[in-house]
Please model this.
Amino acid sequence: MSRFVPPAVKTLTISHGDTLTVKQRLNTGEQRAAFARMSMATANGDLKVNPLEMGIGLVVAYLVDWSLVDDHGRLVVIRDQPPEVVQAAVDALDPESFAEIKAAIQAHDAGVLEAREQEKNDQDGANGSSVISPSPGSVTGDTSGSSSSTPTSTTCSSRN
Amino acid sequence: MFQSLTLHGGTASLLWGYRTAAALRSWRIAKHDGKWLLTATIARADAFQLRQRPLLFTAPHEKGRDGWWAWGVESIEVGPPYTSLRATLGPPEQ
Model:
């Protein structure tokens, strides 16, 4: 089994028939880049996750393409654009649309984490190992509250 | 039917899926004897992704025209230290 993450994508459908093309799974470099975008330096030089950036950071990390058009009916191009361009396009959305897109990608991210846990448990079951503890630091789920957290799971997840 | 044809441009990309395996600074494609041959200068490259397959060469159409040129990459040689490359391309994609 390969340890490398292929550039597979998945299509998510949101309201009004719009679609999002998202990465099936983030590789190490994509995850690190996402954490870097979400992080800020504290007064003593440590890095911590900026809760205000977690949602947008997750969206930009996963988003590859979409079907969203502008007021003139033209596709707003984000495919193959740098993260700054993708973020600018997402930041131009109305808040309700952003919330919907973020929720769809959060659900996808949670599904990725769950699938990886299942895969690990299946592999260890096949190898005859004992029951596996879940990976630490999963922060997917309800997004009430706004406490900062540093994700330590293998996917990018957002609490806000 | 053209026996030979040359296209050239500035920025372009070699993609592995959605990932950019190489960002190209300038490129030239020549069709000769039925083969499409790409030569390009590299602005930035990912050494791992450049070795994956399939790769797709994409370049934006000229100004005033939406869309992209796209060719599948059949073979590729990268010149050290990742500053230039030559590739054989498949037929242009629609």
The beta strands of chain B are 4-9, 12-16, 19-32, 35-45, 56-60, 68-79, 84-92. Helices of chain B lie at 47-50. Chain B touches chain A at residues 13, 15-20, 48, 58 (CB under 8 Å). The longest helix of chain B spans residues 47-50.
